[in-house]
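Need a sequence for this fold. Nothing fancy.
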């Protein structure tokens, strides 16, 4: 990887309480509803949401190869931060191991979610990872309209 390459950085404000947005990132039953582009089917094989825990998933595109990912949670600070290391493969193609960090920063109309991935942005755009992040974050915002995602009292 080019040390000077611009890495993936996306910021999105979600109009909801920070605790609710964090909940949608931390429960597999909610991830199943938004953590893949619309045209794809997400399967979660393992989801152990703790530091050192593993998140194994696969995403199938219609008429496309299966993308498999293995992630290990590196840091979890409730309603503040999630960081994980991810290795992915799509058919015979394997990606470099990268780190994804999502911070939940209070910001006026809801949390600002800066998302950083240690992957060159140009590569992410070429492989569709970049537009996939945008679509997944759009879907995350849509999930806030369902009653079953509410923050417990």
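Here you go.
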């Amino acid at each position: 990887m080019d040390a000077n390459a611009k890495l993936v950085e996306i910021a999105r404000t979600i109009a909801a309480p920070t605790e609710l947005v964090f909940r949608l990132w931390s429960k597999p039953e909610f991830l199943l509803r938004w953590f893949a582009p619309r045209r794809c089917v997400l399967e979660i094989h393992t989801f152990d949401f703790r530091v050192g825990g593993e998140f194994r998933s696969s995403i199938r595109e219609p008429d496309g190869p299966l993308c498999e990912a293995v992630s290990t949670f590196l840091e979890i600070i409730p309603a503040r931060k999630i960081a994980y290391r991810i290795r992915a493969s799509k058919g015979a193609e394997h990606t470099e191991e990268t780190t994804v960090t999502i911070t939940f920063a209070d910001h006026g109309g809801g949390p600002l979610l800066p998302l950083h991935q240690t992957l060159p942005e140009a590569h992410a755009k070429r492989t569709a990872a970049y537009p996939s992040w945008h679509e997944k974050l759009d879907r995350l915002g849509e999930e806030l309209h369902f009653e079953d995602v509410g923050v417990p009292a």
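For context: The longest helix spans residues 129-143.
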